[in-house]
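Q: My labmate handed me this sequence with no annotations at all. I'd like to see what the chain might look like in three dimensions before we decide whether it's worth expressing. Could you predict it?
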Amino acid sequence: MAHAKELAEARIIYKRESADTDTLYEVLKPEERKSVELQMNSLATKGPISLKQACELFAEHADALAKALHLSKALPAVERVLLSAK
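A: Here is what I predict for the chain of 86 residues:
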């Protein structure tokens, strides 16, 4: 898992605050699905590929995409602030 370390740290913080990461994930899951759907549709309508091809590329390269979108690379300042809550 690309974000295993961060998830482990978040679980420690959530436990201390009497929150549940699994419940939070279930709440956010539909929004994440919508976000992926919007991205795939955008790629298909603005790019030279079909929606089916965009989805296939996403699925084929999911691990690489997750690593590329890692908070430490995408938004390092945000990651520092979030993880400083320890």
